[in-house]
Amino acid sequence: MKDFKRTLVTAALPYANGGVHIGHLAGVYVPADIYVRYLRLQGRPALFVCGSDEHGVPITIRARKEGITPQQVVDRYHRIIKDSFAEFGISFDIYSRTTSETHHRTASEFFRTLYDKGEFVEQESEQYYDEEAKTFLADRYITGECPHCHNPKAYGDQCEKCGRDLSPTELINPESAISGSRPVLKKTKHWFLPLDKHQEWLSKWILEDHKEWRSNVYGQCKSWLDMELRPRAVTRDLDWGIPVPAPGAEGKVLYVWFDAPIGYISNTRELLPDTWETWWKSDDTRLVHFIGKDNIVFHCIVFPAMLKAEGSYILPDNVPSNEFLNLEDDKISTSRGWAVWLDEYLKELPGKQDVLRYVLTANAPETKDNNFTWRDFQARNNNELVAVYGNFVNRALVLTHKYYDGRVPALGELTEADKQVISEFQGVKAEVERLIEGFRFRDALKEAMNLARIGNKYLADSEPWKVVKTDPERVKTILNLSLQLVANLSIAFEPFLPFSSKKLRDMLGMEKAEWHRLGTTDLLAAGTQLGTPELLFEKIEDCVVEAQVQKLLDMKAKNEAAAWKPDPVKPDIAFEDFEKLDIRTAVVTACEKVKKADKLLCFTLDDGSDTPRTIVSGIAQHYQPEELVGKTVCFIANLPPRKLRGIESQGMILSAQAHDGALSVITTERETHPGSTVG
Question: Domains in the chain and their CATH numbers?
Answer without folding.
Answer: 6-113+256-322 (3.40.50.620), 117-227 (2.170.220.10), 342-351+369-517 (1.10.730.10), 575-678 (2.40.50.140)
